[in-house]
Amino acid sequence: MTPELSLGLALAIPAFAGVLISLLGRFPNIREAVTLVASVLLAANVAYLVSVTGARPELNILDMGGGLSLRFELEPLGALFAAVAAGLWIVNSLYSIGYMRGNGEKNQTRFYVCFTIAILSAMGIALSANLLTMFLFYEALTLSTYPLVAHKGDAKARRGAAIYLSILLGTSIGLLLPAIITVQYLAGSTDFTLGGILGSEVSPLVSSILLIMFAFGIGKAALMPVHPWLPNAMVAPTPVSALLHAVAVVKAGVFSVLKVVTYIFGPALVQQLWAADALAWIAAISIVLASLIALTKDNLKARLAFSTVSQLSYVTLGAMLATPLALMGAALQIVMHAWGKITLFMCAGAIYTATKKTEISQMRGLGRLMPWTFGAFAVGAFSIIGLPPFGGTWPKLFLMLGAIDTGQAILIAALIISSILNVAYLLPIPGRGFYEKPAEETLPKKTPMLVVLPPVITAAGATALFFLIEPIRAFLAPVFDAGVPTP
Fold this sequence. Notes:
The protein is mainly α. It has helices spanning 3-23, 28-51, 76-102, 108-127, 131-149, 155-187, 204-217, 229-232, 238-247, 249-265, 267-270, 274-296, 300-321, 324-355, 366-369, 371-385, 393-405, 412-426, 428-435, 449-467, 469-480; strands at 58-65, 68-73. It is globular and about 70 Å long.
């Protein structure tokens, strides 16, 4: 198999799976087998792509002239995001089967079809060679996940989905698309090029305005104040929440911000822009403020949603600092947060499946009855907090070092305060589950193995990632270390 063919298969596998699933809706076992087989095939294909990333293969689908094309190219940052999405699709597919069946959810065929389209869109974003290609798949991701957010079909779900769609389409059409058109006009191209394509002929003022348009136009990055779509999307079933927070949507957002900074502006330019300093402070404020809001939420999914808003801003902060260490920290946050946060959401879904409880105040003593679920939650929480030996340790370390590099060591305070708040709003959940006396009410029903096993797997992954830091860092080094100046 050639690398070019493998690029095409990364898009074809989920697309073909979606068609098959829609045709096999009357046969649930076969339909779900197709989902699992497709996820395994995609992961194997992406693993091959990771192994050949150094060759930088390309796949040109359509040349529109004038420097515009629908084109894909493999590079380390995109390969890493593709690996995260493809790998977690396997675990989330297993979990989805257990959750959807365990809760008797309706419209399961539509659910699985939309899921495959979302994964296809994530692959397109990860492997895009230019802004135009990225934008098309970015919008496809929004449209394909809208039915997932509205899945339950009640008034609350419809309202949450409407907010989700209006904010994400509003920011992308109102800010992101004009920014892309402006880049095409100024640079004559939207191709992702290491070091950036915006030259010195573009004034600092114009570059700063463009950077702001990209930062807020990529609404999936959930930078305050364009974040409300994320907590409102928590009306969706928990497998969708896991998709939004770990596998595809928010990761596509912060990945796009990081890729635009690295390949359109270039770190050297970003370090010179006043807008980058302003956006770094907005990200720092988002990190702390969202954590404070999370602390006030009794609903478990709402608390985790605001936690995600905070954690996503780590990536934006690293991108705006734009030193090699900060950029590395931002990229590592995409990986480490994905494994930690999907663990937390799947545990929330397991608790709901077994007890129908959604409020943290109702969960006292449940850890004694559901030790694997609450144990996995504790591991995911430790990783999000940044405690060793868990993967979430490394992004915070690199981001702190990056802040020192820029002379803005004061920004480290936001990371430290956030970590303290992480402890305050996450650890009481397993603490209450294990150390308080269970309520005198019906014991949890038997939880499907496919709901319990996936978060245990991802918790183990969040731990293993701590020890895999060197190969990951070395894989990304050609992007962030090659000729990137520091102040």
